[in-house]
Every structure is written in C-alpha cells, then in structure tokens.
Automatic annotation (TrEMBL):
Keywords: ATP-binding, Ligase, Magnesium, Metal-binding, Nucleotide-binding. Its cofactor is Mg(2+). The lineage of its organism: Bacteria, Pseudomonadati, Pseudomonadota, Gammaproteobacteria, Oceanospirillales. InterPro entries: FTHF_cligase, FTHF_cligase-like_sf, NagB/RpiA_transferase-like. Its EC number is 6.3.3.2. GO terms for molecular function: 5-formyltetrahydrofolate cyclo-ligase activity; ATP binding; metal ion binding. Belongs to the 5-formyltetrahydrofolate cyclo-ligase family. Substrate binds at L67, E72. It catalyses: (6S)-5-formyl-5,6,7,8-tetrahydrofolate + ATP = (6R)-5,10-methenyltetrahydrofolate + ADP + phosphate. ATP binds at K21, P22, S23, L24, R25, R156, M157, G158, M159, G160, G161, G162, F163, Y164. GO terms for biological process: folic acid-containing compound biosynthetic process; tetrahydrofolate interconversion. This is 5-formyltetrahydrofolate cyclo-ligase.
Length: 214
C-alpha cells in the first residue's frame, strides 16, 4: 500500500466515480509542495541511490532528466555522477513554434540557462537553436520523466500539457526508443489512474521508496 493510502482521497477517486484528473492533479501537486526541505533531501537521496543501481542507467551513454520545480523529486544529484562516467546529460526545452513539444538539449557545465514561461530553468534559446546541441528523443538511452501521479500498474499522470506524450509519440511506430523511467515521491502514488489512449507507457517508475516495473 502507498504510505498515504489512509489519507482521504478526493471523492472523485472512489471506484464508483470516473476520476476527475484536474482536481487529482491539483491535490497531488499540493502534496509534493508540502514536503519539508528535509523530506525533499532524503527523498532525492533515496531516489538517486535506486537510479544508480538500475542496469539500464549504468549502461546508458545519453540520459535526459529535468530540473525540479514545485516540490518535484530532485534527480539532479545524478548529474555529477553521470558526468564522471562520461554520460551526456540532456534537459527538456519547450520547443518554439511547436505547441507542447519538447526539445532535448545537452546540459554542460557552461550551458547558458534562462527561465521558461513556467519558471523552469532550461538551456537558452540561442544555445538550444543550434542543432549540434540537441538530440532527437530516439537518440537517448534513458529518459527520466517527472510524474505528478502514478499507480502500481505503471499508469502515469504529468503536469497536463501532454509534453512528454507528444514528444514520445514516435515510439509507437519506430525503434530505437529510449528507456522511459518515471520518477516521483512515494506520496504521489494513488490506487488507480485511468490510462489515456495517448499515454506512452513507462518501463519503470522509481520513487524514494520503491521501483515499480509494470
Ligand atoms: N521540472 C520539469 N520540467 C519540465 C516538465 C515538468 O513536468 N517538470 N514538463 C513536463 O511536461 C515540461 C513543462 N511542462 C509544464 C506543463 C504545465 C505546467 C503548468 O501547468 N503550469 C502552470 C499553469 C500554466 C501557466 O502558468 O501558464 C501551473 O503551474 O499551474 C508547467 C510545466 C518540460 N519541463
Ligand atoms: N501525441 C499527442 N498528440 C496530440 N495531443 C496529445 C498527444 N498526447 C497528448 N495529447 C494531449 O495533451 C493533453 C494533456 O494530456 P494529459 O492530461 O495526459 O497530460 P500528461 O500526461 O499529464 O502530461 P505530460 O505528457 O506532459 O506528462 C490532452 O488533451 C491530450 O489530448
């Protein structure tokens, strides 16, 4: 059972109601924002310990992750470890002129950064516009995907923009595809999320408490 199973879920989460995704998303975002700095630090450390043990990550040469906002679990302690292993690190960048698509842009120690319209740091436009600094998503070995919610079956919910679903839609038709790892705090686990037709399935979900392999 998820540790928060005893907390009252929104009424919309009971089996007899269809799930009201926007209110569930709000509730789960509130929950992760409410974690203390200390809980955040511990969760991040536990998450990264688990990630470093995954064979898929140990084998990878190119990995994308994200810079956390709003209480998201923090994967960035991995960056130094990955660089020491000569792994290339990529970040999502809001793609200009393509609604709700992401670019994956290499993140080096001297990469110029700006805040995007959501207040998330990302490589600056001048840098991201250069094709040599980007990688098509199929060129990644592993993509670490931030989750707002997840269930034990591996269903996921994100921020609601469909950014990752759109960016990864190609994986239905073509190989290679990156190994997709969703990450979240364990308090973001819920009993059941309805899969949507456009959802791209994850190979694993890693939280501070466990590794779920659907
Ligand atoms: N750290 C991090 N970076 C990421 C993502 C993420 O989930 N986490 N994304 C994953 O998709 C993309 C950005 N997606 C986002 C989608 C929606 C909202 C959002 O709802 N923001 C406002 C409402 C809209 C607005 O301000 O215009 C909000 O916070 O309520 C933010 C980011 C790319 N970078
Ligand atoms: N491949 C796609 N092409 C066009 N629209 C899409 C695609 N994937 C998702 N969408 C649209 O994006 C919107 C957001 O979807 P959803 O609520 O599932 O987002 P999410 O999974 O939480 O977000 P994310 O993928 O950024 O983590 C939906 O309205 C959906 O129709």
């Amino acid at each position: 059972m998820p540790p928060y199973a005893d907390i009252a879920y929104p009424a919309s989460l009971s089996a007899s109601h269809p799930i009201d995704k926007p209110s569930l998303r709000r509730e789960l975002r509130r929950r992760r924002r409410g974690l203390t700095p200390r809980q955040q630090r511990d969760a991040s450390r536990r998450l990264c310990q688990r990630l470093k043990q995954l064979p898929e990550i140990r084998r990878a040469r190119r990995i994308s992750l994200y810079l956390p906002v709003g209480g998201e679990i923090d994967p960035t302690p991995l960056i130094g470890w990955l660089r020491r292993r000569n792994v290339r690190v990529y970040l999502p960048v809001l793609r200009p002129f393509a609604e709700n698509h992401l670019w994956l842009v290499e993140y080096r120690p001297n990469t110029p950064m700006i805040k995007n319209r959501f207040g998330i740091f990302e490589p600056a436009p001048r840098y991201s516009a250069q094709r040599r600094n980007r990688l098509p998503a199929w060129g990644l070995d592993v993509m670490i995907v931030p989750l707002v919610g997840f269930d034990a079956q591996g269903n996921r919910m994100g921020m609601g923009g469909g950014f990752y679903d759109r960016t990864l839609a190609f994986t239905r038709r073509r190989r290679p595809r990156p190994w997709l790892i969703g990450v979240a705090h364990s308090c973001q686990q819920v009993p059941h999320l309805p899969p949507e037709p456009w959802d791209i399935s994850l190979q694993a979900i890693v939280s501070d408490q466990e590794v779920v392999r659907p």
